Fold:
Amino acid sequence: MLFYPKNRTLSVSFAPVIKKAFYTVNMIVLIGLTASCLACYLDPSVFWPLQFLGLAFPFILVLVVACLIISAAGRIVIFWVNLAAMVLAWPFIRTVVAVHTAGDESKGIKVMSYNVRNFDLYNWSGNKETRSEIMQLIRAENPDIICFQEYYTDDNEFRDTEYLRDSLGYQYHYMRITYDKTPRRDDSRRSNHMQWGLAIFSRYEIADKGLVQLGQSTANQCMYADVRLGDRLLRVYNTHLQSIHLGYDDYDTIEELSENQSTSWHKLKSILRKMKRATAARAHQARILQDAIGLYEGPRILCGDFNDAPVSYTYHTISRGMTDAFVEKGNGFGSSFATKLGVYRIDFMLTDPSISIHACRTIPRRLSDHYPMITTLSLPAQR
Structure:
């Protein structure tokens, strides 16, 4: 005899036709859930469309929960299939949504990872105070180590390296320049040396530094710095993986779709083509990065903008053998990509399992197209 929830107040009777339609919809949802989980294992260069289902995982999960509740209320046999699917998908669910009590940031090393979008150099936000507000946020949070992606500094108005060093007290830093430019001037004014790239700033001495080359791209790389904490070293990796490079027209198209407006197939096809190239590139970069990080045997942490969701081949490859700070101590969806949907975590902090995670959170202030992520951690006790 089958067992169903005994609360009869939840019991609902369905007509045969409705029940059959529900079964059909429910099975489609379960197939979508299965396919989205498979996105973690299938190389996008082999079959890339599954990565879209990985991106849709939070919404598919909501549908599965709805099917679970409806099938329980209707005392329908497929309730057990839904329940089994939730149990089997739990390893993926816990990477997307987390529930923990508030962490303890009073002890340990405080690390920030932040894609600052060039400190709003081109005034995308329409707010000329964005750079100043980012620096004020850093001052208020007072992290010990900061990993910047899409970092920018120059010798003119955006003297970010100078400000972080002299005003905020980060005496040690390492910048990996991905683009360097000194525009010519036709007058006698001083030329402006402009630099873009990745950067690590630390209140602790940087004993060593280096680069993990992620293929041919100069824009997408991984740098590292060995930070000296007393008589020990913490290797801090900082990476920025392949982005989709959407243009303004692409964002307009996405906005139209989110508002259920019609859009042309030509515009949509352009976005799909860019996503296909980006997912394949990230898969290649993820394999290189995972191999490189695995070679280092000391305490290590990887910070960065993966440009991919937790249910993806990229995340699953890189996080193998690592601890996700959000999974351990985060709350909610941990959204780090500043969109209206509020469910996408594409910025991560991964550590080796020996490191203790005390707290992890994102700061939902829209000063960039990413939110800053904060993790407090401690190194393992020496034997």
User: Anything to note?
Assistant: The chain has two domains: 8-96, 109-378. Residues 109-378 form a domain with the Deoxyribonuclease I; Chain A fold (CATH 3.60.10.10). The chain is about 35% helix and 20% strand. The chain has a mean pLDDT of 88.
